[in-house]
Specification:
heterodimer; A: about 210 residues; about 60% helix; globular; B: about 280 residues; mainly alpha; about 55% helix; about 5% strand
Chain lengths: ~210, ~280
Amino acid sequence: MNIKTISWALILIVFGTIRLAHAAQPMDVLKGPVDQIVKILKDPRYHAASKKALQREKMWGIARQIFDFKAIARGTISRYRWSEFTPKQQEEFTNVFTEFIGNLYFKKIQSAYHNEKVVFLKQEMFTKSKARVMTKIIRDSVETPVDYSMWLQDGHWKIFNVYVEGVSLLGNYRDQFERFLANSSIDDLVSVLKKKVEQQKKEKGVEEQ
Amino acid sequence: MRYALIVLIVLAVFMTGCAHNSARTPSVAPLTLSSPRHSDPPSMPEGQKPPEEKNKTPGLSNEELDTLYAEAKAGTVHVADPIEPFNRVMYHFNDKFYFWVLKPVTKGYKYVAPAGLRIAVRNFFDNLIMPVRLVNCVLQGKFHSAGTEVARFVINTTAGMLGFADPADNYPQLKTKDEDLGQTLGAYGIGNGFYIVWPLVGPSTLRDTVGLTGDLFLNPVAYVRPVGAAIGIAAYQRVNTTSFHIGDYESLKESAIDPYSAFRDAYIQNRAKKVRE
């Protein structure tokens, strides 16, 4: 094998790998976890009220792979506010906010799940590493548009914002937190969120709707 | 004349379920929808970066932070709220109305009425207010959509047995968007004015209130006599619509640290999205 062949082989390998990395489309990446969650929701093993916590645990595991919770928490606090947080407050806030929105989301889908269908509509690539995936959830022939902003982090597509009916998760919390922090301290914000999480935990099972 | 006015007001009260929250574009819960930020805290302009970016999240580059903050700011639309004290009182009234009246009634209704029936009723009312969507499509120059509305109406009124069924739904090319006068005015460049929470109706703005009132003239239910019957129909429609959304209001409320302003933001963003479409 001469040097030319080797260099061609190398070039092919390098570019081939790049192509492969780019071949993963955000929409396809999203489909996997969504299907998994739907499967868990449908699984009769988790239908007993006593198994709901376990079911939630399972869904958390999947959600953590696909949601960039750190970025979501960070995005709800404006840039200059964030620099006022001590590292400890930043960590506390990130953890409690993640738990808060995760619980909200799972509670909602656990209680409301009655054979909804998730339809993947399309994806829009803004840059090579930023995209939006449009979906809709159909329940009793009521359609709810849900769009996901995704970006590429260390080679993995992750969700960093969600729009439900055009309402942005980041935008909504950003406004609320900004208003709250105008009159209250960062520690107050963290403790309000902690209280909310406590409340979420206290609620036994899920209300049938 | 006074008679007509009363009908109009009462209908306005109950009809939000149709134009604004038509089941076809499922919105949050009928009563919910929501708001802007008026009393912005004195904040540093977002573009200005603080001198030292000391507490960076490990793993997020400056570019990524820019992307993140741009995204967080992009979705937000705000509205003036000069009558916030009044609005807050109305918000609490509506909240109680939902939990004490609308929700229990709807739950009872849902218990006796199977989903198929409720969907049929929803389709019927959707079909009935076709004139509202049609006129607003035309006013916005969306002639293709206007044609689609007519086609849908013809198919659903005949093959769909007066609109109780929705056979047109099987044709993707016959999909329509929700249109109302508030959106038309928005498309003309008229701003929200300010935020208003009406008792029973829920979140609105000056512009959307004008729109809602105008749309009533195109709503056949507004012409039903006696007035009591019109009110009854409107109330029933509200309950039927709500039956598809029980739980939505609750989750949105739970998700907020200040529900009043969260509903206000959500209403404004949702409407802005509809105007854009």
